[in-house]
Write a structure and sequence with these properties.
148 residues; alpha+beta; two-stranded antiparallel sheet; 6 strands
């Protein structure tokens, strides 16, 4: 089975059970106040923050610094890896606005944001098909290789 990662700190574990049994040093509630949580994306060469578009080579290095476009305020939360990975186009999950980068997408206010028109910024959307394909590849990698 493929490795699984914590979305808060990038901790790598051989199984989901091993991942969620340990406390996380970068948990949003505080160091050691919550357990690791599964990063639902796939292993990649680069990871991108879903709030600002910052990229890093590992989840650990991505989540180690504060995000200027975090929902709690600038510098009040860490970068969060986008489960959709790096793409050529990003679409807003609320209104369908398309942009070439997450940085540009999240810099503009959304007219159909849940908080009201112009009261929140665009947020990247993950297509269900891409998400399901990526999760299937990660969780059933060994089983899929048997059938090739």
């Amino acid at each position: 089975m493929a490795n699984v990662y914590c979305k808060y700190c990038g901790y790598k574990a051989p199984s989901l059970r091993a991942l969620i049994s340990c406390y996380c040093t970068r948990h949003p509630n505080g160091s050691g106040k919550g357990k690791h949580e599964l990063f639902e994306g796939v292993e990649a060469k680069k990871y991108v923050c879903e709030y600002c578009g910052f990229t890093a080579g590992t989840i650990a290095s991505l989540t180690s610094s504060y995000c200027t476009r975090h929902p709690n305020g600038s510098g009040k939360g860490k970068h969060s890896p986008f489960i959709g990975g790096i793409q050529s186009k990003y679409t807003c999950r609320y209104c369908g606005f398309k942009a070439g980068s997450i940085a540009y997408l999240t810099s503009c206010y959304c007219t159909r944001h849940p908080f009201g028109s112009g009261k929140g910024k665009h947020a990247p959307q993950v297509s269900f098909d891409d998400f399901l394909t990526n999760v299937t590849k990660v969780l059933f990698k060994d089983e899929l290789l048997k059938y090739k």
